[in-house]
Amino acid sequence: MHSKRQAFDLDLPGKPKGGWVGWRGPLAATGLAALLRLPYLGQPHAIIFDETYYVKDSLALLSFGHERKVIENADASLLASGGENFQSIFTDAASYIVHPPIGKWVIASGEAIFGATPFGWRIAIALLGILSVLLTARIARRLTNSNFIGTMAGLMLALDGLHIAMSRTALLDTSLSFFTLCAFGFLIIDRDSANSGGTKIWRWAMVIALGLACATKWSGVYFAAAFGILMLVWDYERRSKRLEGFSFWFTRDFLPALLMPIAIVAIYISSWVGWFRSSGGWNRNWAAENGVSSWLPDALVSLLHYHKDMLSFHTNLVTPHSYASNPWSWPLMIRPTSFFYETDPTCGANSCSQEVIPLGNPLIWWGGAIALAVIIFFAVTRRHSAALPIAVAFAAGWVPWLFFSARTTFSFYSVVYIPYTVMALALGLYFVNKNLASSKPIPLRWPGLTFLLVAAALTAFFYPILTGHSISYEMWQLRMWLPTWV
User: Fold this and answer.
1) How confident is the prediction for the chain on average, in pLDDT?
2) Which of 314, 360, 353 is closest to 337 using CA atoms?
3) What pLDDT band is residue 442 in, cutting at 50, 70 and 90?
4) DSSP symbol at 485
5) Residue 460's CB: how many other CB atoms inside 10 A?
6) Start-end of H helices in 320-441
7) Which of 163, 126, 203, 227 is nearest to 419 (CA)?
8) Range with top average pLDDT, 81-90, 404-413, 464-473
9) Any bridge partners for residue 354, and if so which?
């Protein structure tokens, strides 16, 4: 007789098949992501939500190396001109901005190639969103030793409505999500490489990615701290297994790791090169104009003062907003942010609605919230090799915001942790299927495929309001499942 299973089985599959077999699923997910993110990328032909800041700031970086103020009705002028002679929308005065430059340079790269048009300022973000699907699938594959689980994670991210809408909007958060996801992948490769006696080059690749993340939005610092601590914990465990002791870990791992935050700061400061090279950037000459003497160069003193003002802005941002969302509610997608809404009669009905709203796929988000709770439990109680890093990465993207619940925040910030939500969901579905099997565990195929088919149907249902398609008001209202979504 078979003995009863005494504990929940958390074993992962053996080494997955490599070569083309390991790439075909992730590439299929990436292809699906492209099909959902690239068509009609210039729709709506408008500057939506906070694009009004980053579209123009990116153009200013291209033209002047630093952000400048704009003329009245600059958005309308830019759209009407078709991107021609866009420098005319700027004044000579510097603009006060509150985010570092890298994410805006990403947007600017598309504008430089395709022009100052909606397609031009969205295309680079769309490409990062598509690549994020490939990264998610391959990272999940490495974490779980399963081609199928990795593909599941990639397909779920490809289908998620919030990620689709954010990949089609010229904001900074998709760039932040991409860079932190790269850092997470490098962290996992570094762990595996170190266990097999490899070099530490991958952790320095992680540092570069984290530097770019911090130079996109300051919340990249949370990932830098979380990944750095996890890296050192893994280093210590590895030294202990080799009987090398604390002193060996301290000198060989901890002390060299102190160079990493220095490198991140260096990357961050370097990202301000356009501001340094200019003479007219905001507060560029503050030290000289105020007679401040220091052992630091005047430009660096001025930048530090500028950052003091930026910090004050972020910590005191409590301006009421109709779409503000408490961070505690983000995992359940209670209050999504409407980026664009028009009622022009363009759908053939008497009353039309055209909206862009980063609304997560309900099945993925609500199922993902349950999966995250389970994965976090396994991470804490079992130190599971896949659950632990997923839980840490998710926490880095969400938990710090809980301490700023009084600040004006928005649910679309959660695009930074949705890759880890789908990893947790794919892994959780595998565990459930494996432990429900009456005989030998079966692959996560039928439950997983059924889940994907329902998720795909929901994505198709919500797709018009993710991408700004004009539909009748009645059809739009049919998609507002919760009163807080309106």
Assistant:
1) 92
2) 360
3) low
4) G
5) 11
6) 362-382, 387-398, 418-436
7) 163
8) 464-473
9) 342, 470
